[in-house]
Every structure is written in structure tokens, then in C-alpha cells.
Amino acid sequence: MLRKLAFSSIKSRLKDYVVLFSGLVVAAATFYMFMALATNQDFLGKNSMLSANNTMFIFIFGAILLAIITFFYLIYANSFLLTMRQREYGMFMMLGAKTGKIGQLIFMETFLLGMGATLIGEVIGIGLTQVVARLLVQQMGLTLQHFNSFYWPAFLITLAFFLVLFIFAAIWNSHKLMKTPVLKLLHSAEQPARTQVKPIWLAVQALLGVALLAAGYWAMINIALLQLLAIPFALVTIVLGSFFTFNATFIWLLRLMKKHRSFSLRGIRNFTLSQLNFRIHDYTRMLAMISILFALALGAITVGLGFRNDLSMLIDSFDAYDVKLYTHSAKIDAEVAKLDIKEQATYSYKVKGKQIYYRQDQLQDQPLYYFHYQRSGGISMQMPQRRRFAAKDYQISRETPNGAVQNAYNQLGIKSIYDGNALTGHLVTAAEFARLPGKTSRLTLIRVRDFAAARQKIAKIEQAQLTAAPEFSEVLENSKYANAQMGTAMYSGMIFMGLFLGLSFLAMLASCLMFKILSGAYSDVKRYDMLNKMGARTSVLKASVAKEIGVLYALPGLLGIIHVLFGLQLFKLLLLNPYHGIWLPFLIFLLLYGLYYWLTVTLYRGIVIPKVEIDK
Amino acid sequence: MTNEVVTVQHLVKTYGKGNEKKFTALKDIDFTVENGEFVGIMGASGSGKTTLLNILSTLDKPTSGEVRINQQDLTQLKGNQMADFRGHEIGFIFQDFNLLENLTAAENIALPLSLQGVAPKQIQPLVMKIAKRLSIESVLDHYPTELSGGQKQRVAAARALVHQPTILFGDEPTGALDSNSARELLETMSSLNRNDQVSILLVTHDPFSASYCQRILFIKDGEIGSELRRGERDRAAFYQEILDNLGTFTE
To answer: A615–B15: do the CB atoms touch at under 8 Å?
Structure first.
């Protein structure tokens, strides 16, 4: 009977349960997806620029972060479940249901809900892994190898992790409900007491918060000065700074607004401000955590996309020329004719034993392009500049060849310079070249207008050259195209990780905030009912809800964005320009975050806004 | 020109839609409250008191019949008009005070004025005025949790009256008070009615509270059964008559 009652009350709150359940499903799906990557060594080894072991470490670090946030997420989801149910269970107990029986029911409910969500989440996770992987591969032109969307170890780890967490949650829920006096369960609406904070202490905390944040930001900007010490220093100061900022600075601002009566006594503002004042006290730790996680998630996405930007720039700097033609055939020529060529030049050479000869006049007529590396001033990454030698640079000399000539030997080489069988280059006049015995060979260097666009065509040319003249395989394997392929493979892992971690973090942290806010909604029902009786229009109440929740979402979001803007300084070590095109990840991120905000407001309104007509 | 603030004619309220089981909470109710009157509505639990009060305060809609407050037909009101009507014309006092715990007493009292868009500068003096009238000036800066039951109900009364509503509805306002606080509150309400011409409609099942009224309507199973008038008698005698009437009425 009791079981039937419990089930029927689930039906009456179906909408809230659907949200809770789907939230848990998303958590399980995300966790599975991440684990499918983190525990799949084949995938990591092939897709990361770091060695498989190192990547494993980074991914395990990410997995731990994800586990921690999933843990917090479950705590908030669980407390939402508890607040939703405590009145009903209190009622059953008042009606004489045995405590043990109730405990059992709660345990079953929490556990079944959790396990059901986990299994469905894993199935969805497998599907999503496949879809997301394919989508990323297509969208970004990445190459993912050894990617298997179904992976047993990941499936089992996810199941075990959620199983343990839900058993704890179930024990916690039944314990908490059984220990709470029945009367307290029935009247669970909280009574916010006056917050007794001395203004001086508040001011000190507010200043401390801002000062700590400033110190953290300073450390990140000056990473060159502080070296690796900057990271732990910034971490500690920013975490503490965020905490104090929420605990004092925002409260101080709210008080200021409340005190300003001509502002606060308009419409429902005073109520909204008081709700916020009361909430922020309760939410301090939560909001500080959200701001940090927000920064981590947004940072991960921004850096992920930053790697993508870098990739195209890096590829451009691999070689000054896009294609080098060592041999000719009808097929090769046909493919070359399809290229959108910006510039091309052909050079002759003769090979005699271990010696190779080039014509000075050809180089003087068509000096080579090259990349100039500036002496790096700091620790930040810089791109080389494309330059062109001058005709006078190509001087014949008996001593060690100068830079331009050495560069010509390298760029026009037909054997890998890294192997022992490299040829010794010589620069000779046209007359001397003609006198040399042996056959004259030609080498054509081509620059296209857009390497990325021409990549497919270049692939065909390279392949045709390899088949037509396998003796050039050494240089062909080191061509710009071959390097670009390798670079793409290496970076794609990093991009994927950044995007994936960022989006899953976002989903989790926004749901944490959502459930935390919704858990408080049931105790607000009476307040909104009262306001309704006092003649506050429904639209006014709705606006108040939107503003209150809006501030709770906006504050950690804003602080998080500031964290990221300063935090990107750290990535000057790894990225050419971490700030390039950041509007895109910011936009994606804010849209998703906004979606969660909208969902929270809608659900909250569903709980607290009184119906116009009473139906019994 | 009528002198009636509340007119109820042939009011019927039926719950249950479509093929659900129907339940008629109010069956053909007729009564009026005149300006400056202090009227009590008595009845046992389930007699329809709360339904009547909900309809009078535009929180619920009647199934049929007419309800007029201050010459305004409530059945014609829609959406925002209903909320605005509550805000302007009606003051509420409840059994459990219903103060907002996160606002101070003064802020609670100021809220109806803010909601009506009264300029912040004018709010402060109005709050002070009503607070003086109800002798709660000293607790204005306190939060509800720091007040006694009697003080809370006075703050609630101040909040109900600060915007000078047409009528004050009391829904068992003494229900959660000790006898001294209850007596004080009723004396205050009585004085507000006599000296400030506040019309009051008090819903209660407590004969002592009801004895402060000038006229009492007894409601039973959704119908008005009988009516008592205090006339020129003193309160103690009226109290005795209510008790007698209750004895016969409930049987």
C-alpha cells in the first residue's frame, strides 16, 4: 500500500522527476563518454601530441575532476529529491508508517532512480560518443583513429562509480529522513534568521576578496616571472578570492542597493533583493565553486578551439612551399593543373656520386622563400615570418656556405637531411653546371593560394609521386603535406579533449546550480503565495523569479569569464595567440549556460507561481 | 446610492470538472456588508468559510452568482485586474501571519505600497503612521523571526491596512495567538473599525473572536443558516448569545 502511495506521488510530480531523471541520465552519459576516451589507450596514443602515458595522466586528471563534479552534482540532485519528497514521507510517518519501512522505501526510490538513469545514460552515452566523434571529425577535419564508441572497461567503470555514489546517496537520504522529527518534515520551510555580520568584518572580507583575485590574476599574467609557481599560487588566491567575493563583496553590494530606498522600495525589488541576500549567504561556497568550474570549462573550450586555430597556422609554417614536384607523369601534371597556384619555380640539379649541384643563376633569378625565426624574447610562442632571399645572397664560396645557400641545399634536397646518406650540396655557375657530366634533373617548387583548400588535391599528387618515383620517398615523407597530416592527428586529440571536457563540465556545473536553486523552491512556495494574495501581478512575480535566478547565474558566470580572460595568459606557453577568436567559444558557452538558466526559471516558476484559479 | 462594500448574490461554487465527482462547497449564498461594518462569518471546518473568503478575495472564481466589492463585479475581472484589485481594495490577515521572513517588519509593511507603485518617498511616512496606530514603531527594524506572535500579527495588520483598503479580511487571525495577544488584537481591530471606519470581515470558528463583531453570519454546509446582531448590548452578553446559538445551530 505504502509503495503504491509513494509511486502515485511520483506521478503527481512527474515534471520535476523528469528533470531530475534526465539530469542524472546526462551525467551518466557524459561520464561514460569521457571514460570511453580516458581508458582507451589506443585512442589516446594515436591522437595526442604527448606520448600515450602522458596523455593517460592528463585524461585521468580530467576524469578525477569529472568524478568530483559528478559527485557534487549528485549531492545537489539528491537534495532536490529529498526536499521534494520529505513532506510526503513525513505525512506517511504521521499516518503511522514505520520508520524502517519508510527508510526502505526511500532507499529503493533513490537507488532505482539512480541505477535506471545510469543504465539509460550509458546507452545514450555510447550512441552520443559515436555521433559526437563523427561530428567532430567531420566539422573540424580531424582524424580520429582507433575510436570505438562501445568500450567495456568504460561501461563497467561508469556503472561501478554511479552504483557506489547512489548507494551512499540512498543511505544518506533514508538516514536523514529517519533522523528528522516528523513535525520538521511537515513544516520544512526554512526560517531565514537575521544574518549577523559586523559591517567592518564584511568590508574586510570584501576587500580581501578583491585583493586575492587581483593577486591571482597578477600571477597568471606574470607567469614568465614566477614560472611554474604561478599556477598553484593563482589557484589558491583565486579560489579564496572567489569565495570572499561571494561571501562579502556581493552581499555588500546587495545591502547598498537595499539601503538606497528610492531604488529598493519600487515594486517587488525589495523582495527580490532580500531573496538574493538570503540566497547568496546560503550559496557562497556553491557560487565560488561554480565560478571556478565555469572558468575551467570555458577555458577548456577556448583552449581546445585555440589549438584548432594554431593548427592551421602551424601547418603554414611547416614549409615555405606547399608542394615539391620531384618527378612528372601525365597523372601528376593533370592534378597539378587543378591547383590554384600562386607562384611556382623550377630548379635544375645534377647528382654525381655523393655530390649534388645547383645553378647559381636560377637561384638568383628566383630566390627562395624561407621562414625567419625571431629570437624569442619571452616564453611565449611566436610564429616565424615568411621572407625571401635576395639574389645577392647566393654567393659561391669555397668556405662554409652562407645561410641562403645552406637553405637552398635543404629546400632543394632530394634525400632526407636527417639520414646519413645526405648529399653534399654545391652551388655552381650556369657554365660550370653545363660542363658537369650526368643528366639534368628538375625540381619544381609550388606555392598555392590556400593550402587547406588544396589539401585533398595535394594528397593525390603526393601519392602519385610516391608510386611514380619511390626513390624520393624519404623527402616526400617529410613534405609539408605529410607533416600537416601528422600535426592534425596530434592536435585533434587535444582539441577533442578540450571541447569534450569543457562541454561536460558546463553541463554538470549548470545542473548543479539548477538543482541547488530548485531545492530551495519548495520553501519559497508560501512566500509567492503571500505576494499573490497581496495583489502582486503574476507577471511581476515571474519577473522577480527571472531576476533572482538570473543574478545567481550571472554572478558566477561573470566571475568565471574574468577568470578565463586572465587565465588564458597561462596558455601563451602553448598557444600562439590564446585570445584569437575567443568570441566563438564564449558564445557557444553562454548559449548553453543560458539554456540552463531558462530551464531553471521555467521549472522554478512551475513550482512557486500560484495558479490563478484554485482547483481541488 | 448604496452604502454596501460587499454584495453577494446567489453565489454557488462547485468543485470537480467534467466527469469528476462534483462537490458543491457554496450553495446560493446571499449577504451584504455595509461600509464601516464589522461582520463575522462563523462555521465549523468544511462549512465553506475558506471557499467564500477565497472568492471574495479574487483568489478563486465562483461557479455562478454575483460578487461585488466596492461596486466592482469580481466575476468580470481578468488576470492582472484580479491581482490589482487585491492590491488596492483588500487587506488580509491570516492565522499564520504570512509575513515574509526575509524582510524586516517595516519592509513587510511597505510592500503593498511598493507593489502599487507608490513613490518611495511617500512610503516611509505612511509606514510610520500605521505603525504608530498599531503601536509597533519599536519593532520596525526587526525580522519576523525576532518578534512574538502578537507583534507579528500586528505587523501583518499594519501591512493589511497601510494602503487603506476598502475592506479588511481576517482569516482566523487569532488562531495562533495566546489569549492576551488575541484580546489585544481584537481590541485593536474593534478600535480601527469604530474610530477609523475600517470595514472588516472576520472569518472564525472562535466564539470569543466573533463576539467583537456587530453582526455574525453562521454558515453550515455551504449555506447561511442564521444571523445574529449585537445591537446595543455589551460584548459579554453577545458572547453568551453566540454560544447559545452555536449550541442549537450545530445540532
So the answer is: yes
Q: Does residue A598 surpass a pLDDT of 50?
A: yes
B62 in helix, strand or coil?
coil
Q: How far apart are CA B36 and CA A507, in angstroms?
A: 60
Among A115-124, A495-504, B224-233, the range scoring the smallest mean pLDDT is A495-504
- Per the CB < 8 A criterion, the answer to whether A301 and A502 are in contact is yes
Nearest residue of A to residue B144, measured between CA atoms: A193
Q: Is residue A293 part of a domain?
A: no
**The three cell numbers locating residue B22:** 462534483
Is A129 near chain B, with CB under 8 Å? no
| Half-sphere CA count of A50, side-chain side, radius 13 A | 12
Interface with A, mutate which of B22, B99, B100 (most A CBs under 10 A): B100
Helix axis angle, A583-608 to A269-316, nearest 10°: 150
Question: Taking a C-beta distance cutoff of 8 angstroms, is the pair B54, B60 a contact?
Answer: yes
**Average pLDDT score over residue span A479-485:** 84
Mean pLDDT on A186-209: 69
- What 3-state class would DSSP assign to A396? coil
Partner-chain contact A271 B84, CB within 8 Å: no
Query: Does the beta carbon of A188 lie under 8 angstroms from any beta carbon of chain B?
Result: no
Residue A524, min C-alpha distance to chain B (Å): 10
Q: Which range marks the domain in which residue A103 is found? A: 1-188
CA nearest neighbour of A487 among A341, A299, A319: A319
Quote the DSSP letter at residue A318: T
Residue A50 binned pLDDT confidence (cut-offs 50, 70, 90): very low
Number of domains within chain A = 2
Judged by CB atoms closer than 8 Å, whether chains meet at A194 and B143 is answered as yes
Distance, CA of A123 to CA of A101 (rounded, Å): 33
For residue A54, pLDDT beyond 60: no
Nearest CA in chain B to A528: B100
How far are the Cα atoms of A276, A287, B51, B200 from residue B29, in angstroms, in the given order?
45, 54, 12, 19
Whether A4 and A148 map to the same domain: the answer is yes
What are the structural domains, with CATH classification, of chain B? 35-62+83-250 (3.40.50.300)
Q: How far apart are CA A350 and CA A240, in angstroms?
A: 69
d(CA A570, CA A276) in angstroms, rounded, equals 34
Note whether A534 contacts B112, CB cutoff 8 Å.
yes
With a cut of 50, say whether residue A225 has pLDDT above it.
yes
Whether B194 and chain A come into contact, CB under 8 Å, resolves to no
Q: Is B56 on the interface with A (CB under 8 A)?
A: no
All residues of chain B having their beta carbon less than 8 Å from the beta carbon of residue A534 are 86-87, 92, 111-112, 115, 159
Question: Which residues from B are below 8 Å from A257, CB to CB?
Answer: none
Mark A196-224 as b/e (b = at least 16 C-beta within 10 Å). eeeeeebeebbebbeebbebbbbbbbebe
Is the pLDDT score of A178 beyond 50? yes
* Structural domain ending residue among the three candidates A147, A164, A188: A188
Rg, C-alpha atoms of chain A: 33
Q: C-alpha angle B213/B216/B220, rounded to 5°?
A: 145
User: Given phi > 0 = left and psi -120 to 50 = alpha, else beta, which region is B117?
Assistant: left
In a domain, residue A226? The reply is no
Read off the pLDDT of residues B89-134 as tens digits, 9 standing for 90 and up: 888 888 888 888 888 899 899 988 888 888 888 888 999 998 988 8
- The C-alpha of A271 sits at a distance from chain B's nearest C-alpha, in angstroms, of 7
Q: Which amino acid is at A496?
A: F
How many of the other CB atoms lie within 10 Å of CB of B247? 9
Q: Give residues 100 to 119 of A whose Cβ lies within 8 Å of B.
A: none
pTM of the model: 0.76
Instruction: Pick the residue from chain B with its C-alpha nearest to A539.
Output: B80
**Which ipTM value was assigned to this complex?**
0.86
